[in-house]
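Researcher: Please translate sequence to structure tokens.
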Amino acid sequence: KKSGALYCALPGGHVDPGESCMEALEREIAEELGARCTVRDLLFVTEGVYAGRKKADTQRHEIVMYFAAEFTQPPREENGKIFSPEKSKNFGWLPLCEMDDKNLLPHLAREPLRKIAASGTQAAAPRYSFHDATT
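Model: Translation complete:
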């Protein structure tokens, strides 16, 4: 909303007090997609500073952890879209070849995702990246 640019992001969210990062991801997948998953290995981490999503937001500092996960109960789809219990969310499948065209954020996630997809293994991903988009 702040920049007016359209973007895509992977499902996820914040860790609540008392829960692990893996528990948080399982909870967020249930809340956002109405699905269940088993979270596996940590693949990579990105860290970035950005202006914020809304016009009133101040500068934000975000650390994002990317995990391998497997659906144990996949999300429900309706008319080619993924149903979300959160009405403000709009989920769909994004082929990796379209992530640049669809402005997948954060940008630092794109290259590790490409490498993981191309190699079929987790070893190809860098473990950590940082970017300050406000400087």
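Researcher: Any highlights?
Model: The first strand starts at residue 36 and ends at 50.
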